[in-house]
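This protein record is not my work; I was only asked to verify it. The record follows directly below this note.
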Amino acid sequence: MTTFNVTSTMCLITWSPVNNTQLDPDGHVLGYNVYVAFANSNSKPQVEKVEGRTSFNTTISGLEEFTQYNITIKAFNLYGEGNASKYSFCYTEEDGM
């Protein structure tokens, strides 16, 4: 996973597809849930649902400026979510004066 701060309130997150070894057609990946939470906080994360097997990026907006966020991703299928990815961080920019 790679994260980029786009603006003071927006981050772009990109990732690689999961390696799905399920033989069951219902087990194929239907999309990804991207979890965004304040770093070093127990706050409830914001969830961005990215549907489709071929979408591997999303832009999260409405973030606070000059703030660090923890990002994790979970693939999902008909049965639910898979394991979480390793954490990545996004740092939003500080607005100019």
Observations:
- DSSP finds no helices and eight strands in the chain.
